[in-house]
């Protein structure tokens, strides 16, 4: 992390796309500012590999 900052996860419960997250990053000294310093959208994708193999 570069410099002091705070992060706020603004995921809403019951959202249709549970694998999406929006994280807003604000400076630690102004956490209640109207605009975040950065907004990140993160998508979680899980791949299952090797299931069902038999010997």
Q: Share of helix among residues?
A: under 10%
Spans of 5+ residues with little confidence (pLDDT < 50)? none
Strand order of the largest sheet: 1-2-3
What is the H-and-E element order?
Answer: EEE
Distance between the termini: 46 Å
What Rg is obtained from the alpha carbons, in whole angstroms? 17 Å
**What general form does the structure show?**
rod-shaped
User: Which secondary-structure class do the elements indicate?
Assistant: mainly beta
Main pleated-sheet profile: 3 strands, antiparallel
Total individual domains: 1
Counted by DSSP, the helix tally is 0
Strand content: 25-35%
**Integer average pLDDT:** 76
Structural notes for this entry:
- It is rod-shaped, with a radius of gyration of 17 Å.
- It has no helices and three strands.
- The protein has strands spanning 5-9, 20-27, 38-43.
- The model has no long low-confidence stretch (mean pLDDT 76).
- Helices cover 0% and strands 35% of the residues.
- The protein has 55 residues and is mainly beta.
- It has one domain.
- Strands 1-2-3 form a three-stranded antiparallel β-sheet, with no helix packed on it.
Set out the fold topology.
Elements (H helix, E strand, L loop, with lengths): L4 E5 L10 E8 L10 E6 L12
Task: Give a quick rundown of the structure.
The chain is mainly β. It has one domain. It contains no helices and three strands.
Main attributes of the structure:
single chain; 55 residues; mainly beta; 3-stranded antiparallel β-sheet; rod-shaped
């Amino acid at each position: 992390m570069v410099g002091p900052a705070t992060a706020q996860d603004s995921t809403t419960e019951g959202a249709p796309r549970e694998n999406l997250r929006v994280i807003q990053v604000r400076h630690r000294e102004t956490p209640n500012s109207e605009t975040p310093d950065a907004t990140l959208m993160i998508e979680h994708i899980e791949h299952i590999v090797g299931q069902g193999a038999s010997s």
